[in-house]
Amino acid sequence: MKYLKAYVICVLVLVSCDKKEEQLDITSIKNNINNSLDHWHQAAANANFEAYFNLMTKDGVFLGTDATENWQLEDFKSFSKPYFDKGKAWSFTALERNIYLYDNQKIAWFDELLDTQMEICRGSGVIEKVDNKWKVKHYVLSIAIPNDNVTEVVSLKKKTDSILKLKMLKR
Questions:
Q1: What is the band of 2 on the pLDDT scale with cuts at 50, 70, 90?
Q2: Global pTM?
Q3: How does the average pLDDT of the chain come out, rounded?
Q4: What CA–CA distance (Å, rounded) separates 68 from 167?
Q5: Total domain count for the chain?
Q6: Long-range CB pairs of 49-54, under 8 A, 24+ apart, other chains included
Q7: 51 contacts: CB under 8 Å, gap ≥ 6
Q8: Would you indicate the residue range of the signal peptide (predicted)?
Q9: Parallel, antiparallel, or unpaired: how do β-strands 119-130 and 133-143 relate?
Q10: Residue at 74 is within a domain
Q11: 67-90 pLDDT tens trace
Q12: Whole domain around residue 113: which residue ranges?
């Protein structure tokens, strides 16, 4: 009986250690993802074209704040290059970020509130581990609009949106 109690205690300690190690591993992975996203934003702020796009997957997508901005990677590079070349890309700093890790620990999704030149924006996306580096696979940038101002904003964009909807419906 004494040996059985000792055995049970050992098993419980091992299980507890495994859970703590697993939690540390998840924390470490999320820290790596945070660092990668921070470096990605910093590369844009520093107008470092190579560093910025090296932190995106080869099939990366960037959805901008304008309804027409659905950029596949090569188109996004072409659009962005003049801004990077002038040394004036964009500057986003995360104010808050949530990361959700998929079971395989090679894909995660996230949302973040950003301090930008457009004031507070929301970014969200998917990040994938590629060759042992976390890279942005899909990113969505949205301008955060206070609920009290939605009516004004809708009024401002109504004409442009009407024209765009007509074009899209004709496709």
A1: low
A2: 0.84
A3: 90
A4: 11
A5: 1
A6: 49/77, 49/80, 49/81, 49/84, 49/85, 52/80, 52/84, 52/89, 53/77, 54/135
A7: 39, 43
A8: none
A9: antiparallel
A10: yes
A11: 999 999 999 999 999 999 999 899
A12: 2-148
Smallest CA-to-CA distance from 137 within 100, 168, 107 is with: 107
Task: Specify the CATH number for the domain of residue 76.
Answer: 3.10.450.50
Laid out side by side, the sheet with 56-63 consists of 70-72, 56-63, 133-143, 119-130, 107-116, 93-101
Q: Which residue has the tokens 């560093």?
A: 51
Closest CA to 141 of 122, 126, 164: 122
Mean pLDDT of 50-62: 98
Contact 121, 144 (CB under 8 A): yes
Residue 140 lies in a domain: yes
**Tokens at residue 51, please?**
């560093």
- Say how far apart CA 124 and CA 106 lie, in whole Å: 17
Domain-located, residue 40? yes
What are 87-140's pLDDT values in tens digits? 989 999 999 999 999 999 999 999 999 999 999 999 999 999 999 999 999 999
Does residue 57 lie within any of the structural domains?
A: yes
